[in-house]
Amino acid sequence: MNRDKRYHNEAVETMQPEDLQRMQEDKLGKQMEYVYKRSKFYQRKFKEVGLVPQDIRSIQDLEKIAFTTKDELRESQEKDPPLGSHAAVDMDKVIRIHSSSGTTGNPSFIGITHHDHKGWTQITERSIYTWGIRPKDVIIHAVGLTLFVGGLPVKDAIEHLGATFVPIGTGASERVIFTTRLLRANVLHCTPSYAIYFLDYLRKKNMDPRELGIRKIICGAEQGGGIPSIRKMIQEGYDCIVTEGMGNSDAAPIIFGECLEQAGMHFCGQEFILCEVIDPKTGKVLEMKEGLKGELVYTHIDRECCPMIRFRSRDHVEVWTDRCACGRTSFRIRCLGRTDDMLTVLGVNVFPAAIRDVVGSLRPKTTGEIQVVLDKPGPAVTPPVKIAVEYSKEATDLENLKKKIETLLNSKLNFRAAVNLVPEGSLPRVEMKAQLVKKLWEA
After folding, report:
1. How far from chain centre, in Å, is Cα 423?
2. Which tens digit of pLDDT belongs to each residue from 203-256?
């Protein structure tokens, strides 16, 4: 850290693009040789296209290699347990196992070595520092500590930074209240859904959330912390500042961290991960430039146990490449949603989080809670899209509100909706990830 403590690692965080590229490509060459030697999975991928490690020396060379998908990793693990043929170390070097959430299939397991643990801690600590967390902060951790990569690795990073970590977990709101007061905690780490849930919980107890003393809320694990209407509601409710982070189970716990400028999440894994952005339909690599929208693809350049080459994250992002006011030079993103959540309405891509933002902009007449109702599997949806929207107690003219929501969705997101207004409190409140889509065929 430098003297004014503005950056966690000033040399890396303010590095010029050409210097960063040289550093990354030097590590890329070494990683390709390691992976080819140690991973049967990637040996096969190289041989299928007639490549050897020496053919991959630049970021552009990566396009010669096929993408790695989550389904491939699951199949690799099933055929070659315990960690799959993509794992590049023996189990006696593995110090911890984590797993993906398994929301789109069976969970896959990820192993880390001592070396990987140090790398994860460094990336995550830099992301946390970018959030504005400092050693004086006392952080209530209101997410899981089990196999979830946002648990123990975050604990490790916060403790290494020197801040105070308080592991509350989920389903313990009374304990959050008691502990926050007793320890004078000032930071809450949680999902945006929990931040909203906890607001309602406190108000139902006739407590003013602003008096609890939480001045920073760090959101992750789902879209929401960067959605303007949700951010505004949380910040005003607690009298705090909200920033967000994003990671990936297979790549690293928290790869992107948003600074206090609140202008997108900075890439914080410079020495460990290469990022590409692709057209999700064609797979074509897109130029990393201001305003770019596409799917993030990760390649490890310093990983031992479960290295990934061109791993499709399924996260769709918007990119900013201009220099942030904080002085960091890394590109920034805002996550628009996941492929798994995306709907296609007459050729228009629609993310439920964007619907939630439009509806949330009509507070206080709406609560901001929505649920897209699907009669059959997507992503193609025949309009009008059925959406349940909660109206608040302040709404009086429901017919006019319904028309206004449908008009706004059409003008802002370019699709036709059929809105069903439901009373406040009708839609489920959750402490982890919001379920914005209701699939009737699974009910």
Report:
1. 31
2. 999 999 999 999 999 999 888 888 898 999 999 999 999 999 999 999 999 999
CB-count burial class (<10 Å; 0-12, 13-18, 19+) for 48: exposed
In sequence order, the β-bridge partners of residue 97 are 111
Angstrom distance (rounded) from CA 443 to CA 439: 7
Rounded to whole angstroms, the Cα distance separating 298 from 101 reads 18
- Token pair for 151: 């648990």
Q: Residue 249 to residues 102, 112, 120, 221, 311: CA-CA distances in angstroms?
A: 11, 11, 11, 10, 11
The single-letter DSSP state of residue 284 is: P
CA 355 to chain centre: 18
Helix (H, G, I), strand (E, B) or coil at 293: strand
Q: Convert 173-193 to b/e letters by CB count within 10 Å (16 or more is b).
A: beebbebbeeeebbbbbbbbb
Evaluate whether 325 touches 298 at the Cβ level (below 8 Å). Answer: no
The residue with tokens 């397991």 is 109
* Ordered DSSP codes for 328-340: --S-EEEEEEETT
User: For residues 112 and 137, what is the distance between their CA atoms, to the nearest angstrom?
Assistant: 28
Instruction: Provide the residue type at 236 as one letter.
Output: E
Residues 138, 214, 172, 133: is their CA dihedral positive or negative? negative
Task: Enter the tokens of residue 306.
Answer: 């479960």
**Whose structure tokens read 């942030």?**
324
Which amino acid belongs to residue 330?
S
What are the E-state strand segments in 39-158? 96-99, 109-112, 138-141
Q: What is the CATH number of domain 1-338?
A: 3.40.50.12780
CB distance 218 to 133 below 8 Å: yes
CB 169 within 8 A of CB 145: yes
180: its two tokens: 């926050």
What CATH topology corresponds to 343-442? GMP Synthetase; Chain A, domain 3 (3.30.300)
Other CB atoms within 10 Å distance of the CB of residue 415 = 20
Domain boundaries, the chain: 1-338, 343-442
- pLDDT tens-place string over residues 6-53: 899 999 999 999 999 999 999 999 999 999 999 999 999 999 999 999
pLDDT for res 144: 84
Q: What is the pTM of this model?
A: 0.89
Torsion angle defined by CA atoms of residues 346, 348, 349 and 350, in that order, rounded to the nearest 10 degrees: -90
The dihedral of CA 129, 176, 154, 430: what is its sign? negative
